[in-house]
Automatic annotation (TrEMBL):
This is Histidine kinase-, DNA gyrase B-, and HSP90-like ATPase. It comes from Microbispora rosea. Keywords: Kinase, Membrane, Transferase, Transmembrane, Transmembrane helix, Two-component regulatory system. Residues 368-380 have a biased composition (Basic and acidic residues). The lineage of its organism: Bacteria, Bacillati, Actinomycetota, Actinomycetes, Streptosporangiales. Residues 1-168 form the DUF5931 domain. GO terms for molecular function: kinase activity.
């Protein structure tokens, strides 16, 4: 049920209590002018109250909410068939009494304060039409019930929305905490194995010299990059990271990293994914370009997004090569770069020519902006 469960249980209790109150009013009034009709309406109300005791997933569905509004309005408008005109002129409460507020509360919880206000307007209009059609002077019709119904729909809808947002924040915090614990566990394992091997290769390569020295240098670069990726910030720092700190380890004699003097903050997980995508782009340069090919990394903030550009002076990507690689099952660019950035709500633009390749990664600074981009159709 989630955090909405208590709201729906409260509405169920309200419906049952209101049904009992309506039945008590009919009993005290002796069934009004036509007892058979009055008790028939109460019976319909009782049956519908049982129907609306369904769990939240079903109660939120639009057809059931619409049926709730129609049935409740019909029961309200059936009052003149049980009550006499004198009862109506004397200000008798309709048979439904407070039970009529049930769909207003349900719409507020399920669809928010605006939907709750619309449902309140429908029920208030039905009550106004009922009274005016029975000769009640419009000026003398009490509006307290309509005002309270509007307030109930708006307030309950607003509180329900705030509760859902709070639940989502709690879930996100729990995911971040779990990811931090898993990352720390992996970091321990990597430190005890991969990093030690890379450090050994770097040291022995420097001792042997020659081609082994070059392998040692490359191992040292990968060790530095891997240490930066598995580094686990402590405390609140896990919620946000400076992308510059994750990109700087990629800088070597053949890779130039340029970043602004001010931090480039991103959610910690987003920053690590962007850094991993940059690493995948550099791996492609090392694997597919001639030895000695230079690369440049430029990171900057642009209009609510962090943009990272990876450019090289290699021979470029042959036309159709990326599509061919995807067909052959080699998904380096599709998954390691495009997939990572797409999961963050960002975009990837690849431009290639005979003078080099440029890969531009653009990622929204916040998760809210990513969701807004997705809703407006700008996510790719």
């Amino acid at each position: 049920m989630g955090i909405e469960g208590p709201f729906w249980r409260a509405i169920a209790v309200f419906r049952v209590a209101s049904l009992a109150y309506a039945a008590l009013l009919v009993l005290r009034a002796g069934g009004y002018d036509r007892p058979a009709v009055a008790w028939a309406v109460v019976g319909v109300m009782a049956v519908w109250t049982v129907v609306m005791l369904v769990p939240p997933p079903a109660a939120r569905r639009a057809p059931l909410l619409a049926a709730d509004l129609v049935v409740t309005a019909a029961c309200l408008l059936a009052s003149p068939y049980a009550q006499s005109r004198d009862d109506m002129l004397a200000g008798a409460i309709p048979i439904t009494a407070t039970w009529a507020a049930g769909p207003v509360l349900a719409y507020g919880v399920a669809r928010g304060r605006r939907a709750g206000a619309v449902a309140a307007a429908v029920m208030s209009a039905a009550d106004l039409w009922l009274r005016s059609g029975n000769g009640v002077d419009l000026a003398s019709i009490p509006v307290n019930g309509a005002v309270l119904m509007f307030m109930a729909g708006v307030v309950v809808g607003h509180v329900a929305r705030l509760a859902r947002e709070a639940e989502e924040r709690m879930r996100r915090a729990a995911r971040i905490e779990a990811a931090g614990r898993e990352r720390e566990r992996l970091a321990r394992g990597i430190h005890d194995s991969v990093l030690q091997v890379l450090a050994l290769v770097q040291r022995r390569g420097a001792e042997i010299g020659g081609e082994a020295a070059e392998l040692g240098r490359l191992a040292g670069e990968q060790e530095a990059a891997l240490r930066a990726l598995v580094q686990v910030p402590s405390g609140a720092a896990e919620a946000e990271a400076d992308l510059r700190e994750l990109l700087r380890p990629y800088g070597t004699s053949r890779v130039t990293v340029s970043a602004p003097a001010t931090p480039l903050p991103l959610p910690a997980e987003s920053a690590r994914e962007v850094a991993a995508a940059v690493g995948a782009a550099l791996d492609n340069v090392a694997r597919h370009c001639p030895e000695g090919t230079r690369a440049w990394i430029l990171a900057e903030e642009d209009g609510g997004a962090v943009v990272v550009t990876v450019r090289d002076d290699g021979p470029g990507i042959p036309e159709g090569r990326l599509e061919q690689a995807a067909r052959e099952g080699r998904m380096g660019v599709a998954r390691s770069i495009r997939g990572r950035v797409a999961d963050l709500g960002g975009t990837v633009a690849i431009t290639s020519s005979r003078t080099g390749t440029e890969i531009e990664l653009s990622v929204p600074v916040s998760a809210d902006e990513a969701r807004a981009d997705e809703k407006s159709g700008r996510r790719s």
